[in-house]
């Protein structure tokens, strides 16, 4: 999600706000986050980066409201003699592609400059995947001498004054010392050579995707003409992002000029604003949406989403990044039709509901135990590192957890001990149970993920002794008509001589016993308690 | 009044009856005369108050006690008395001499001089202390001494003279101590007076026993209980409230004819993301957002599915353009905690791949995970309810129909739909429900129709699949009026015992 803030005054110069318009904003697929006297804050879905700027949003939203509908056309002027960028083969393994354009006739003020910087940043963090996939640079043309070269250079040899610095730095120094350089260093540091744009005076314009030059890469409100480049790894997306930038500048009054891109083996011209054509079928769309639209309905609806439509053919704006398939057009048809006008309908098909046998079994188990007056607990599937340490059990670990919960629980005893410890000042008796999954390494190699997940039941009765907990086990097993045996066992957390393995047909299904004082003390529990933990898989064979 | 008196008498408990004869005497004497402990008496008094027999008065009062030094001085005289006794033997003494002989501390000595001077019992002249009092004056106890002898007393009840002494001693170290105490007194009401004077039948049956049942005669009378009297709490066993709500949601899907899906919480990136057309460079696949499990590599499913999914990502499938990047098997093999129950839907579709009848309605309610901090508004585990409808005639309006039906049964009859975005559905929709009490629209979940890029590689052909996966926790929190997300799993036994049952 990208949050964007517009000036309310500027917004209302074009569209007067009302309850109806506010409603329409959300029906257009943008969430109206907040609105006050000065500002409107919107949340734009990540599939529509073309709406990230004020100009981009107004262009599409006006069409949605019925003003200036259809595909917006922009004139792309042919390049002057020097409007060229040479892409040298050295960038191939570093940052292989760039597409560029020139926009003239600009009248920047502080608001417009801020809008462009915001747009650039939003594109970087979303579709640009934090500049990895795409980075954008905008440069004042009056400070640059065309043509331009895009090449990869030894970082020691790259020397320029970056933005927000007061002295010349090398490529390496920028990654080590410049705040922006440090933030994005991981994108370049693995390469021997860093990409740079260099003008005809051999001046460095920028080192993408990190930073522009202070001298040649800073747009001010004196700037009337700009050079725009997008560099990155995904040619098709680069083209669309460039289109988003240049159309936004054009909406501000700019005139777009194309540039000649000289790649090693081919010559291209960018930007390419010609619409993308897609064949669609009215029937497919109706079937998907549950509507009965006619061809002429689409002729009315699609232009409100800024498409052109003639007889089964949609012309898609060259700045839309989200249209992969006919279904994407179908959604826009539904949006134009109005989600509020789609009448929900339950189909008349007969099906039989069915609860999973495992879940049904678990419900029964819970019912039996609740009958004894026990309280169900529900705890996190992750436990803390020090808890695992305290219990001396090996656990699977998750990477880079943001909380103190870092390990997958190996049993239900850990959460039970934590909960009893946290409840030591609440009224006793505390008789509890929990049903849930525990995790261990799958040594038999049966599971796809190599993790063995097992359904467990734990019962704790506090304060209580062996007799008390065994009574519960007997009641449970009798209710299930299962006969079990106990075998004396040494268990690290149970009192020796008061601990047993529970077996069915010689297969161990769990343990039962009185928790030993060491464990109670370690966890700060002041009452004795009896506990049993069993594997449900072993007492019920699921399908 | 008479009838009322009789009614009350019928209900008097044995304890109340026991203290009744002493009611006129006051709290202290009830303790001594009834032979009951203070707590029982207090309880009985409380019950008598409930029956309007007495009016209890709780008052806080300041009680003056002896302090540590006070207790000592009471035994060994106040320092000024010691000095007086010394002077009585010597008539006058040099200051240092007096100090030495009296064996008082600096402070005590200084204070004593001050006190005695102010009482005009001594005079100081040229470094000498001269006794200025006669025998009678000397034999009389000072006010301070009188006070020390008579403590403890209520501050408010001190006589004027003692009050003066009290103020003096208060300034001196640890001689007296003031404690605030709560005292109870009571007053009989009119009704209370009547009851206290009435003759009380002590032959009422208190507790019915097997013996009494056997020998029951009509004449016997029960003591009447005060049915309004409070009783101690008891607690039953019950399901955890989160599980109660999950069960409720499950029952709705079962009523609507859906079949339950279950599966593991640890899954591969392949099922969780790739099968759902989530590009491998999508931010959700970073460690920032998802719990990856250390040191594990999953196996991928059968080759045909893997190949189809790879194609869907790289070059597209059935007229789609795909994401246009190089798909990596290693990325798909990462093991993680599932981020949505939608993975269960993907697995069900793959199971139907080789079957003839590719149709069905499935649901799941289950735990999902995201790498999050833990605070009042964030948690790393959440509940999601998942559903899919696989049917050649299923459409977007049907999807809205199922959602509306489900949320109506969840207690939100007023829902609205707005466009949304998920990588694996198109069209996509966000559901908002109107909260009747708070009068706001709550965002309660997302849904859509699976993209062909999801369905075709899994199912082997395109059949519309309606899918939804709204989160659940906000609804639970709203119902239980929980503001802090951590409360869902804090397992405070007291709170769990007192929580209401989920009934919608």
Biggest interface, chains and residue tallies:
A-B, 89 and 95 residues
* CATH topology call of the largest domain in chain B: BirA Bifunctional Protein, domain 2
Named at the architecture level, the CATH assignment of the largest domain in chain A is 3-Layer(bba) Sandwich
Return residue spans of chain A where pLDDT drops below 50 for at least 5 consecutive residues.
Answer: none
Terminal residue distance of chain A: 42 Å
- Report the CATH C-level class of the largest domain in chain A: Alpha Beta
Distance between the termini of chain B: 49 Å
CATH class of the largest domain in chain B: Alpha Beta
* Secondary structure tally, helices of chain A: 16
Mean pLDDT of chain B: 89
Based on Cα principal axes, name the global outline of chain B.
elongated
For the biggest sheet of chain A, the summary is:
11 strands, mixed
The number of helical segments of chain B is 22
Low-confidence segments of chain B? none
Quickly give the CATH architecture of the largest domain in chain B.
Answer: 2-Layer Sandwich
Beta-strand portion of chain B reads: 15-25%
Helix residue percentage of chain B? 25-40%
The chain-level structural class of chain B is alpha+beta
CATH fold-type name of the largest domain in chain A: Phenylalanyl-tRNA Synthetase, Chain B, domain 3
Which structural class matches the secondary elements of chain A? alpha+beta
């Amino acid at each position: 999600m990208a949050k964007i803030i517009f000036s309310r005054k500027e917004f209302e110069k074009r569209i007067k706000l009302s309850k109806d318009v506010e409603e329409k904003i959300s029906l257009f697929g943008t969430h109206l986050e907040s609105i006050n006297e000065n500002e409107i804050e919107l949340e734009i879905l990540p599939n529509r980066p073309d709406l990230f700027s004020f100009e981009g949003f107004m262009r599409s939203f006006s069409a949605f409201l019925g003003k200036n509908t259809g595909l917006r056309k922009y004139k792309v002027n042919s390049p002057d003699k020097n409007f060229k960028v040479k892409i040298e083969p050295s960038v191939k393994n570093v940052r292989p592609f760039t597409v560029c354009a020139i926009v003239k006739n600009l009248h920047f003020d502080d608001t417009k400059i801020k809008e462009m910087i915001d747009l650039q940043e939003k594109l970087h963090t979303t579709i640009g995947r934090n500049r990895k996939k795409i980075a954008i640079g905008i440069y004042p043309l009056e400070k640059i001498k065309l043509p331009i070269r895009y090449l990869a250079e030894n970082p020691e040899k790259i020397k320029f004054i970056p933005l927000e610095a007061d002295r010349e730095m090398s490529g390496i120094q920028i990654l080590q010392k410049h705040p922006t350089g440090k933030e994005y260093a991981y994108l370049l540091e693995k390469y021997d050579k860093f990409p740079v744009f260099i003008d005809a005076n051999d001046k460095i314009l920028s080192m993408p995707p990190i930073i522009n030059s202070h001298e040649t890469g800073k747009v001010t409100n004196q700037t009337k003409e700009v050079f725009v480049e997008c560099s990155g790894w995904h040619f098709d997306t680069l083209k669309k992002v460039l289109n988003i930038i240049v159309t936004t500048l054009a909406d501000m009054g700019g005139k777009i000029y194309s540039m000649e891109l000289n790649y090693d083996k081919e010559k291209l011209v960018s930007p390419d604003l010609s619409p993308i054509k897609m064949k669609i079928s009215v029937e497919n769309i109706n079937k998907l949406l549950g509507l009965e639209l006619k061809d002429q309905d689409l002729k009315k609806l699609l232009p409100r989403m800024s498409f052109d439509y003639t007889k089964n053919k949609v012309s898609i704006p060259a700045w839309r990044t989200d249209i992969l398939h006919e279904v994407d057009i179908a959604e826009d048809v539904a949006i134009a039709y109005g989600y509020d006008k789609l009448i929900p309908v339950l189909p008349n098909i007969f099906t039989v509901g069915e609860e999973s046998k495992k879940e049904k079994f678990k419900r029964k188990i819970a019912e039996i135990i609740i009958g004894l007056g026990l309280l169900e607990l529900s705890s996190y599937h992750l436990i803390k590192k020090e808890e695992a340490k305290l219990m001396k059990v090996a656990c699977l670990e998750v990477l880079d957890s943001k909380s103190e919960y870092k390990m997958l629980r190996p049993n239900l005893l850990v959460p039970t001990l934590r909960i009893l410890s946290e409840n030591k000042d609440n009224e006793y008796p505390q008789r509890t149970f929990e049903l849930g999954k525990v995790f261990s390494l799958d040594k038999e190699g049966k599971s796809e993920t190599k993790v063995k997940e097992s359904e467990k039941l734990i019962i704790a009765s506090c304060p209580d002794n062996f007799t008390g907990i065994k009574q519960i086990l007997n009641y449970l097993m009798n209710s299930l008509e299962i006969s079990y045996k106990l075998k004396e066992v040494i268990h690290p957390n149970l009192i020796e001589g008061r601990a047993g393995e529970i077996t069915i047909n010689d297969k161990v299904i769990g343990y039962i016993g009185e928790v030993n004082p060491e464990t109670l003390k370690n966890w700060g529990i002041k009452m004795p308690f009896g506990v049993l933990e069993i594997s449900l898989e072993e007492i019920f064979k699921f399908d | 009044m008479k009838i009322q008196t009789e009614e009350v008498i019928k209900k008097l408990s044995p304890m109340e009856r026991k203290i009744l004869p002493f009611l006129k005497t006051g709290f202290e004497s009830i303790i001594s005369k009834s032979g009951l402990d203070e707590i029982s008496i207090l309880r009985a008094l409380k019950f008598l108050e409930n029956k309007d027999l007495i009016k209890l008065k709780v008052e806080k009062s300041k009680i003056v006690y002896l302090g540590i030094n006070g207790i000592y001085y009471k035994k060994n005289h106040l320092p000024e008395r010691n000095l007086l006794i010394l002077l009585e033997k010597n008539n006058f003494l040099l200051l240092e001499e007096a100090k030495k002989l009296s064996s008082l501390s600096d402070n005590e000595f200084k204070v004593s001089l001050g006190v005695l001077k102010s009482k005009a019992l001594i005079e100081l002249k040229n470094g000498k202390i001269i006794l200025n009092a006669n025998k009678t004056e000397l034999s009389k106890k000072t006010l301070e001494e009188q006070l020390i002898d008579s403590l403890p007393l209520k501050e408010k009840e001190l006589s004027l003279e003692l009050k003066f002494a009290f103020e003096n001693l208060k300034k001196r170290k640890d001689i007296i101590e003031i404690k605030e105490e709560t005292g109870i007194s009571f007053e009989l009401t009119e009704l209370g007076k009547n009851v206290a004077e009435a003759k009380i039948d002590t032959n009422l049956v208190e507790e019915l026993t097997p013996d009494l049942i056997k020998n029951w005669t009509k004449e016997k009378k029960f003591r009447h209980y005060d049915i309004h009297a409070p009783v101690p709490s008891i607690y039953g066993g019950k399901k955890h409230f989160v599980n109660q709500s999950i069960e409720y949601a499950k029952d709705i899907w079962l009523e609507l004819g859906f079949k339950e899906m279950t599966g593991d919480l640890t899954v591969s990136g392949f099922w969780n993301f790739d099968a759902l057309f989530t590009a491998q460079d999508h931010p959700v696949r970073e460690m920032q957002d998802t719990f990856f499990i250390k040191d594990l590599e999953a196996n991928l499913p059968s080759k045909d599915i893997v190949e189809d999914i790879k194609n869907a990502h790289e070059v597209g499938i059935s007229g789609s353009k795909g994401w246009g990047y190089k798909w990596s098997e290693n990325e798909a093999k990462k093991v993680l905690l599932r981020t949505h129950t939608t993975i269960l839907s993907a697995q069900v579709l793959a199971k139907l791949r080789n079957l003839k009848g590719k149709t069905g309605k499935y649901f799941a309610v289950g735990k999902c995970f995201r790498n999050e901090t833990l605070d009042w508004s964030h948690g790393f585990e959440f509940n999601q309810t998942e559903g899919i409808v696989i049917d050649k005639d299923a459409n977007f309006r049907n999807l809205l129909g199922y959602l509306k039906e489900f949320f109506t049964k969840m207690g939100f009859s007023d829902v609205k739909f707005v466009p949304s975005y998920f990588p694996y559905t198109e069209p996509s929709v966000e559901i908002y429900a109107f909260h009747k009490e708070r009068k706001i629209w709550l965002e309660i979940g997302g849904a859509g129709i699976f993209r062909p890029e999801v369905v075709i590689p899994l199912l082997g052909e395109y059949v519309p699949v309606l899918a939804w996966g709204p989160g659940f926790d906000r609804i639970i929190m709203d119902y239980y009026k929980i503001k802090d997300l951590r409360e869902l799993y804090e397992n405070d036994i007291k709170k769990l015992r007192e929580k209401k049952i989920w009934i919608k």
